[in-house]
Amino acid sequence: MFADSAKIIIKSGKGGDGHVSFRREKYVPDGGPDGGDGGKGGDVIFEIDDRVNTLNDFRHKRKWAAKNGEEGGKKNCHGKKGEDLIIKVPAGTIVRDAETDKVIADMSGDNKRQIVLTGGKGGLGNQHFATSSMQAPKYAQPGQEALELEVRLELKVIADVGLVGFPNVGKSTLLSSVTNATPKIANYHFTTLNPILGVVSLGDGDGFVMADIPGLIEGASEGVGLGHEFLKHIERTKVMIHVVDAAGTEGRDPIADIYAINHELESYNPKLLEKPQVIAANKIDAIYEGENETIEKLRQEFEPKGVKVFPISAVSHTGLKELLYYVKGLLDQMDDAPIVYEQEYFPDSHTSDAYTVEIDPEDGAYVVEGPKIDKMLGYTNIDSEKGFLFFQKFLKQQGILKELEEKGIQEGDTVRMYGLEFDYYKE
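-> structure tokens emitted (427 positions)
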């Protein structure tokens, strides 16, 4: 089965906790703190693997997690970093936030590897918290929490040229005639279910990638039939070839079919109609003398609009050379870079900034904790005058001082933040 979408939960590693310990040396009864730092948690990394071409593996495994960082040790020993989780995906995979549907990563073009979730920072050991007034700190910083996120993986076929058309007009036959692809071909009145890619070789190393995109019916832009399953693959292609049945073997109107498909493209994403289009009037082998009124009508309708019509037979290979060289000429005028979606969602920036203010029932101290406070303490030296002023400003800006006052704090009361204590005095 071809799988082109899946939902999974990914989780980075938690940072290892800092360690509390003191030197134990002979003849040194009161050794200083020597607790080591915790190791950083593992990252979640998405990486392109050219040997993978579906998202099947993600249908069977729902949760994917990196390893936690190890706790720091005594004698200043740092904890080991948590092992990264590397998730292998096919080229063309888009990673989206499941809740907002915003793009986190587009694994296409030069973007072969991307860190999607960063592991938690390891906590500092108690050696970092020794001061002139507190030479034996019994506190170490906990490691930062892991990040967890539900993401939707979506595989969009990367091809230069997409074949579009209603079922049974000969798209699969055309693809097999001009490329190395081997799609299943039969006279069925339903569509190809899977995008199939093939390489068109024009000699001297010249060529391009062509895809038989799953067909559609009217209403596809609203999700009818295969709907979006079809349309999302068109977004990657640079040129579209409308394949129509010029012989009328299915009793369809080729002009109406082309307008119907373009209507679905425009409803899904108006920019799709900005892509160059070509018409392949197929099955001329079934037409007496090679051309008919249908082909002439196609030319009169679309060539004044800049859409070239090529009468072809995918079965007898008639007209294929002219069609392919014309398409290659269009591609040569375009940017070689693949279409890559910009990142819209940055998971690390959505971590919780919440904090809590609680009163310790044992000693009445006001205990303030939270990820942002923990991070701020990690890079601020509050023993210096400048650092303490920055610390006070931070508490005010975050609304912590206001909340302390609402909780009933009085001058001289103790405030505790991750082992650090100070007396509260109103400015």
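Residues 15 and 122 are 4 Å apart (CA to CA).
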